[in-house]
Specification:
This protein starts with a helix and ends with a helix. Helix 1 runs antiparallel to helix 6. It is of the alpha/beta class. It has a five-stranded mixed β-sheet with strand order 3-2-1-4-5, sandwiched between helices.
């Protein structure tokens, strides 16, 4: 049985840990609200971008642009796991990396080579530890990504695709559903998916009612400029989703840790009270035995 001093020492340690986890929970909650606001602000822009691309593609007709070319023989697949720079977020990082490695095994089973491009220190350290082919890594912005960060990643991926270093690009990230739920999502960003350039019948009818547009410069040139911006926007959306998911996962993990610490404190307090009571009872017995010995 542990002594009272040992129990007190453990109680102090766990109480201090609970203070830290509560503080981290509050910080994550505040950051989560800001991350949600940034996602909500981006969505109208991203939707409008897709509508503009669809209209321009319809006007351009059949075009052959590097980012649209779908290669029949896919030899190399690029996988981009989007993780955090820090831990203490439950299974946030592990589930993204687990899915990325599963995609790697699927590609290798099909005879394809895999190259990794990663964001976040957790992905970088894991891939290097496993000695996997890591072409490029970006770190330092997982909690608050900026559009400039997405641009850097998008340009590197587009350059690798245009130069035929890779034939397909997949991003793996946690999509934010709620503070309690983060869904691992796999999105093919290169080549640009065909459905992105498709226009629904309702939208096409509405465009005809409004009238035909005059494009300056030509639709093909406009589309060539829009495609890289679309890629940057999709990566920025994924980074923002991941940032919100990270804060939600960290908030939930810290709340669970605080709850577990509270339960442990209750158990240790009960054990300490029992130990103190046993010590007091032993002292009383010793006093009574001493009194009996003196009176006898």
């Amino acid at each position: 049985m542990s002594s009272i001093q040992d129990l007190k020492r453990r109680l102090r340690s766990i109480s201090n840990t609970r203070k830290v986890t509560r503080a981290m929970e509050l910080v994550a909650s505040a950051r989560l609200r800001r991350a949600q606001q940034r996602i909500e602000a981006l969505r109208p822009y991203a939707d409008r971008m897709q509508e503009l691309m669809a209209g321009t593609a319809r006007a351009a007709g059949a075009v052959r642009l590097p980012l649209l070319q779908r290669r029949e023989n896919v030899k190399t697949v690029a996988i981009v796991p989007i993780t955090a720079d820090r831990g203490l977020a439950g299974g946030f990082n592990a589930q993204v990396l687990r899915r990325a490695l599963a995609l790697m095994r699927e590609a290798q089973a099909n005879g394809q080579e895999v190259r990794f491009f990663s964001t976040g220190r957790k992905a970088q350290s894991t891939l290097r530890f496993r000695r996997l082919a890591l072409a490029q890594a970006w770190t330092g912005f997982s909690e608050r990504p900026e559009y400039l960060d997405a641009q850097g990643v998008a340009r590197a991926l587009a350059e690798a695709y245009v130069n035929e270093e890779v034939d397909r690009v997949l991003i793996v990230y946690n999509a934010f559903v709620s503070p309690l739920v983060q869904r691992v999502t796999v999105t093919e960003v290169l080549p640009i998916p065909e459905h992105v350039l498709e226009t629904s019948d309702e939208e096409a009818t509405e465009t005809r009612l409004v009238g035909d547009f005059i494009y300056e410069p030509e639709p093909e040139e406009i589309l060539a400029r829009l495609l890289p911006v679309y890629l940057e926007t999709e990566l920025y959306r994924a980074l923002l989703e991941s940032a919100a998911s990270e804060q939600g996962a960290r908030m939930t993990a810290m709340r669970n840790a605080s709850k577990a610490a509270g339960e442990l404190i209750d158990n240790l307090t009960l054990a300490m009270n029992r130990a103190r009571q046993a010590e007091i009872t032993q002292e009383i017995l010793e006093v009574v035995a001493g009194a009996d010995a003196l009176s006898g």
